[in-house]
Amino acid sequence: MHFETRLWQFSKGVRLRISYAVLIGLTATALGIARLALMGWLIGRIFAGDSFQQLSVLLLVVAGVIGLRSIFEHWRVMVAHETAAKVQLKLRQFLFDKVAELGPGYVARERSGDITLSLVDGVEQLEVYFGQYMPQLL
């Protein structure tokens, strides 16, 4: 696992949101484990010969846990996406300021495609880094 300290400096101001995404992800994981345990118990009760009436409450609990897990997972993805967007905006502003500071003489010596690729596609790729990788790493 790789932790890039140069990119971490751009997360200042959103680190609490990253922690928030981690907590939501841990809750979703706990709900996923609970779902698997309840499904195992349900299958065991089915093989034990319980009637549908006896299983109906357990079925509703399993459905509720599945629904809760999906809500928490969606919530985690949305928080992570918004956090990554905030970091990308900060990074784009930094890169734009740096290019403006270097001036047109520097930009004229470099290949414009490389600069454009770094400013657009390179920053877009960081959504996965800040939105998914960082919360999972933490």
From TrEMBL:
Q: Which Gene3D superfamilies match?
A: ABC transporter type 1, transmembrane domain
This protein's major location comes to membrane
The residues that cross the membrane are 20-43, 55-72
Ranges for domain ABC transmembrane type-1 come to: 21-138
Its annotated compartments are: Cell membrane
- Keywords, in A-Z order: Membrane, Transmembrane, Transmembrane helix
A molecular function annotated in GO for this UniProt entry is: ABC-type transporter activity
An example of a Gene Ontology cellular component annotation for this protein is:
plasma membrane
Please give, as recorded in its UniProt entry, the membrane topology of this protein.
Answer: Multi-pass membrane protein
State the name under which the record lists this protein: ABC transmembrane type-1 domain-containing protein
Identify the species of origin: Candidatus Entotheonella gemina
